[in-house]
Design a protein that fits this description.
The structure is a homodimer. Chain A contains twelve helices and twelve strands. The first copy, chain A, is of the alpha+beta class. Chain A is globular. The two termini of chain A are 15 Å apart.
């Protein structure tokens, strides 16, 4: 059912596909790592499956500019506003984090806010770059002008799934990486269930009158609306919707990118991205040790069921990635064949 | 059942109580406004009810220092690390936002990160100060070393309810103010239901084996655990827990405040606070107009039920506050009597 592909093979294959589309080699390597991060960590809805479904069509339709450089619009030292000029978001979001980290090293905090971006893939991949520098990284990205989920009291879709990610070092343990859509699940989870012919749990979709919908195909038919984190109003739907708006503000209103509620066309062009990096070590000694102690204590907390230890977001993904870097990344047969059909490098390895 | 108290009377009464405890007059006025904000906006679990239950005991036991000045530990221009030195959090969180806003005006972004704080009241009150400057304000506060909610797979409480607030101007409309605990509800909502003898909805508390608990008294008895935003694992419990950890990182790990998982005593001393302010107008023109357009479009979205218009977090609270500033703030009889017994100013007005 799956082919175990060596991680370096997967990376070089995908990087080759991007290079063929005109992405400069160093950027293609970053973009490939960002895309394969989904499969490496198990967040497969944001991995290779999106290569032919999402990214290649962006090149074909001219909605991404493979070699565009970021254009700085304003620079206030600790903060930078830039236009990503339709460069591949898989790369430009990482570039934004690296620039924010260099500013944070000086000012204690650094923010790069982008307009004109394209889909960034796993937000957590980019945020984790800050953790690798011993810093804290926060990424927020809206979905450009795309409208996916309605307000809790609304009739029509209004905002995107608006992901939010935070990464923080955790000593010798895998970094803490929270990587979440502000809707209950991202659309990829719903569509993966639809492709697999599986039912989805109540609480992901609802009909316009609020009845739970467990048929994932209802989403693309338009009769199942994606719900916000929190579910019903009494268990926090307004918080999930509020977090969606928080991302819209931080990622898109601040830089002046496209926004769902104001867009004439529901399409994920002109995406807004916020890369915020904190450098606690610029403010005090002992941050790294305290971070290791905090996440050590979380991972060491007494479990309710001794067979199921307490972990934190990012731990499982980090452990899985460590195994797969050594032993290979499982790629479903169908996806493997798809990749072979577009990627000469993988054909050679097959 | 309630007494309608003129808002200025309420403010001066509470400020008088704080002044009597040694808080300097200008700080007492801010702290009173922060506390009464709960009653003014309808978030009454974080209002006057906490004066005798939470804040006065802090003075009596010496856990707050009424006249302490904030001590700056490190200053990198765009970011400041300070020790709040047990000053009343109702005041020091606002002071942190004002300082962060002044840095943001110069650098586009400003962060003040506090250790040694005490309970800040409604996080949204402090965040909204940034919106009043035409900026975006983010407040995160942990609960010091207090442990309230367990990890989704954990047996014992691990983190506090860890509030998060974001405020953004919305033109002529009330500002967008998201003010949320990262647990499904704050403890005040559970205790208010217990005082009123009411059942709570399933999804707020669960027994150690995961069964929903609808008796609010189970919380303080210790046999009902407060759940994270997202409810069950398949509807996002790990996101809510992850957001709780996000707040623990931003608010407490960064400045080096007390943290639930590492504390020897579960008590809300040495609270950590992050005040982050973004000044988009330092980066681009048109931010105010775009913000008005965004929240106008959200408030103008087609409702599912025409009798129930779409709003955004902060709209209802803002409208309620506007009415109550003119007509008075409803205070439950029992609370009014409680206030009269400690506040000479209100006695004189009674």
């Amino acid at each position: 059912m799956t082919v175990l592909v060596p991680y370096p093979t997967l990376l070089s294959t995908v990087a080759g596909v991007f290079r063929e589309r005109g992405v400069p080699p160093d950027r293609a390597a970053v973009a490939a790592e960002a895309l394969c991060h989904g499969d490496l960590t198990g967040m497969s809805t944001h991995g290779l499956v999106n290569l032919t479904r999402l990214y290649l069509p962006l090149f074909d339709s001219g909605r991404t500019a493979p070699a565009a450089d970021m254009a700085v619009i304003a620079d206030r030292g600790a903060s930078v506003l830039a236009d990503a000029r339709r460069a591949l978001g898989l790369w430009s979001a990482s570039q934004a984090v690296e620039l924010a980290a260099s500013r944070a090293a000086r000012y204690g905090i650094g923010m790069v806010t982008l307009r004109g971006a394209t889909h960034i893939g796993c937000a957590g991949y980019h945020a984790a770059r800050a953790a690798a520098h011993g810093m804290v990284g926060l990424i927020a990205s809206n979905c450009g002008g795309q409208r996916i989920a309605p307000a809790p009291d609304g009739r029509e879709p209004l905002l995107g799934t608006n992901p939010l990610a935070l990464a923080c070092p955790a000593g010798d343990r895998p970094p803490f990486v929270l990587d979440m859509s502000t809707t209950v699940v991202p659309t990829g989870r719903v569509r993966a269930a639809a492709r697999a012919g599986e039912e989805i749990p109540p609480g992901w979709l609802a009909s316009p009158d609020g009845t739970p919908v467990t048929d994932p195909e209802a989403f693309d038919r338009g009769d199942g609306r994606l719900l916000w984190l929190g579910g019903a109003p009494e268990t926090g739907a307004y918080k999930g919707f509020g977090l969606g708006l928080l991302v819209e503000v931080l990622a898109a209103l601040v830089p002046g990118a496209a926004m769902g509620p104001l867009s004439s066309v529901s399409r994920d062009d002109d995406i807004g991205v916020m890369a915020l990096v904190l450098a606690p070590s610029a403010l005090r000694p002992g941050f790294g040790e305290d971070a290791a102690a905090l996440f050590g204590a979380v991972a060491g907390a007494k479990p309710a069921d001794p067979r199921r230890p307490v972990t934190y977001p990012g731990w499982q993904e980090g452990e899985r990635a460590r195994w797969r870097r050594v032993h290979g990344v499982p790629v479903p047969d169908e996806l493997y064949e798809e990749l072979r059909s577009i990627a000469p490098a993988l054909r050679a390895a097959g």
